[in-house]
Write a structure and sequence with these properties.
The protein is mainly α. 67% of the residues lie in helices and 2% in strands. The chain has one domain. The chain has a two-stranded antiparallel ribbon. The C terminus is likely disordered.
């Protein structure tokens, strides 16, 4: 009883503190919400445009739902504050699923880890669309075995808000024995989204977010970009950080940059397919859901980050769901990588918004902070891939024929 009471008290305090972070430093960590998301909502309510329906958009169609919901609340309260309240409400629903009656040590540890992760990542983890997807991802993953249709549907909803939960869906299709239920739940949600967009006249823009991502350059925070950031720090001719006004982000330039940009998309695709193939082989050889899903889900999510040419700070939010679920399932094996995840999240908050301007001006200590974070990301990725490769399987027993 008291364990559950204290964790819920901590939940309220942590979310209150992180909501407050969004109002510090001229709302540096919540700029996307207070300016960009609010602008999208205002334009939609004014009947000017509907992103994803009347024009291409960088996000899937369901990303409009939280933006417009907060826009409705904005008529009574500040948009940024309303966003924090909506994220807190969604987190509370998934947190209740995770904690339950507070009797499971693994789930309680996972709950405390989730709160520590929210605090470690700070405002950038709260004030982005990614924050909306995390509670869907956590609850959906926890329900994959007991309620596969519902679990799959929640993951599909999250995927149509921000693409990354597709990694969890792929892991579910591979690791859960009731695959038809997993595919069915996702298919129902996807069909509903597609039909709604088509009826709204947005068929031409349904998958506009896909082309936008594949055509981007190397974002400064992406792991692969660390090479170019170090080259720029060393003063190598042509290596630099520049601002791309079209997509409102900082990118890197340098030797053979165009080749690297072209190569990174197939590298990401091949890497994800390879991880899925390893997971499928393990499943075919009889690996259990408990043993297979945590490392496969974490590997696919980390692959989405480590092999990506885009590396926004909010991408670190993605790490929370697979690590929380892994701790709930197998707390002893996943405690150390969970601690490493907290370190990565804390370093990310230092990178943005604290020392971001220093990185852009190539201050050595700030640059090495970014590089260290990315090295730890790669290290965590390697650990998870090794863990995936070592997932035990149930080898078929060969029956001998007595003579």
């Amino acid at each position: 009883m008291w364990r559950r009471t204290w964790v819920w008290i901590a939940f309220v305090l942590v979310h209150a503190v992180v909501i407050w972070f969004g109002f510090l430093d001229n709302r540096g960590s919540s700029w996307d919400v207070s300016e960009l998301y609010r602008w999208w909502a205002d334009r939609t309510f004014a009947g000017q445009v509907v992103p994803g329906i009347t024009e291409d958009w960088i996000y899937p169609p369901l990303a409009q739902l939280p933006i417009l919901l907060v826009g409705l609340l904005h008529r009574a309260i500040d948009y940024t504050f309303a966003w924090g309240l909506v994220v807190t409400a969604l987190d509370a629903a998934a947190f209740a699923v995770l904690v339950g009656r507070g009797r499971s040590r693994g789930r309680m540890l996972a709950a405390w880890l989730w709160l520590a992760a929210i605090l470690a990542l700070g405002g950038v983890g709260m004030y982005r669309l990614d924050a909306v997807t995390v509670p869907f991802a956590v609850a959906g993953s926890l329900w994959l075995v007991g309620r596969p249709w519902l679990g799959s549907a929640l993951l599909a909803v999250a995927t149509w808000i921000k693409v990354w939960p597709a990694a969890l869906l792929a892991a579910a299709v591979i690791a859960v024995r009731r695959r038809l239920a997993i595919v069915g739940g996702a298919a129902v949600v996807s069909a509903a989204v597609v039909i709604a967009v088509l009826l709204a006249g947005g068929g031409a823009h349904l998958f506009g977010f896909v082309g936008d991502q594949t055509s981007r350059g190397l974002q400064v925070e992406a792991p692969v970009s660390s090479v170019y950031v170090l080259l720029a720090l060393a003063g190598v001719p042509g290596a630099r950080i520049y601002y791309d006004a079209e997509i409102i982000t900082f990118q890197v330039a340098g030797p053979s940059i165009d080749t690297v940009i072209i190569v990174m998309t197939p590298v990401l695709m091949i890497g994800m397919l390879a991880l899925a193939a390893v997971g499928a082989l393990k499943a075919w050889r009889g690996a259990s859901f408990v043993a297979l899903f945590p490392p496969l889900a974490a590997a696919l999510v980390l692959g989405f980050i480590v092999l990506n040419k885009v590396g926004s700070p909010q991408y670190m939010t993605w790490l929370i769901a697979p690590v929380v679920v892994a701790l709930a399932i197998d707390r002893r094996r996943w405690l150390r990588p969970a601690v490493l995840t907290l370190v990565i999240l804390a370093l990310t908050q230092l990178i943005f918004p604290v020392y971001y301007d220093w990185i852009l001006t190539l201050w050595p200590a700030a640059v090495w902070l970014l590089v260290t974070r990315n090295i730890l990301l790669v290290a965590l990725f390697v650990w998870v891939v090794v863990r995936l490769a070592r997932v035990p399987v149930r080898r078929p027993v060969r029956q001998s024929v007595s003579e």
